[in-house]
Amino acid sequence: MIEPPVERAPGWRGRLESVMSNRFTGPLLIVGAVLVVMHGFWLGDRMTYQQVDLLAFWLPRWCALGHALQAGHIPTWLPNQFGGVPFASDPQSGWLYLPVMVLFSVMSCTRALGLVITLNPIIAGVGLYGFLRIERLDRPVATVGGLILALSMAGSSIALSMPFSGMLAWTAVALAGGAGVMRPRPPAGQIGW
Questions:
Q1: Of 83, 156, 151, which Cα lies nearest the Cα of 122?
Q2: Residue 38: CB partners within 8 Å, gap ≥ 6?
Q3: Would you say residue 90 lies in a domain?
Q4: Structural domain that includes position 43
Q5: Domain count, the chain
Q6: Is residue 19 part of a domain?
Q7: How far is CA 132 from CA 26, 61, 68, 173, 177, in A?
Q8: In a domain, 164, yes or no
Q9: Backbone dihedral region of 192: left (phi > 0), alpha (psi from -120 to 50 degrees) or beta?
Q10: What is the helix (H) or strand (E) element at residue 139, kind and residue range?
Q11: Given a cut of 60, is residue 113 above it in pLDDT?
Q12: How far is residue 75's CA from residue 148's CA, in Å, rounded to a whole number?
């Protein structure tokens, strides 16, 4: 008598493949990992006087931006820095940076700054994940790439340097956008990019 083959439970490779087959697993893992590493910024008050640029330069600028936008004004002049400086005409002011505009308009300035600090590594990691997926790399590989970029930013002082963390974040998004434009697709799909 021949016995039927016994089905074995999938090993770790099978479980990894089944978990990673979900298209949202990689980005959710990237977001969750950054939120765990940077919990002091988005949940608590981790900012100290050691982060001089954040508290002395970016916080007053973006807080004034948020207050002006709440009042329905375009902030053309920043009166509380150097006796007054042009704001909207300054390309490094953060004016028209959508996350800053939204967050500083709807919540307190210190909470918004903590969220902006946390958001840049998330944007970088998910942007690199998107780029690698558009380039047809497997989901686990794209997830590891996004995690490496996001966590290397979140665990270092790069996350506290707004120009550098923003540049890294949006470079990854630009790579994903450029790869999406260059990928051959039907004309209707090309218009979407």
A1: 151
A2: 117, 118, 121, 154, 159
A3: yes
A4: 25-181
A5: 1
A6: no
A7: 11, 35, 39, 11, 11
A8: yes
A9: alpha
A10: helix 139-154
A11: yes
A12: 37
Note whether 110 and 45 are within 8 A (CB). yes
62: which 2 tokens? 């973006």
Residue 2 belongs to a domain: no
Give Cα separations from 87 to 9, 78, 80 (angstroms). 62, 6, 11
Which distant-in-sequence residues (6+ apart) come within 8 Å of 95 by Cβ?
Answer: 65, 75, 87, 88, 101
CA distances from 143 to 2, 35, 65, 119, 181 (A): 45, 16, 35, 17, 22
Per residue in 12-70, pLDDT (tens digit) is: 566 656 655 688 999 999 999 999 999 988 887 777 767 778 888 888 889 999 999 99
What span, in angstroms and rounded, lies between the C-alpha atoms of 102 and 111? 12
159 exposed, middle or buried (CB, 10 Å; 0-12, 13-18, 19+)? Answer: buried
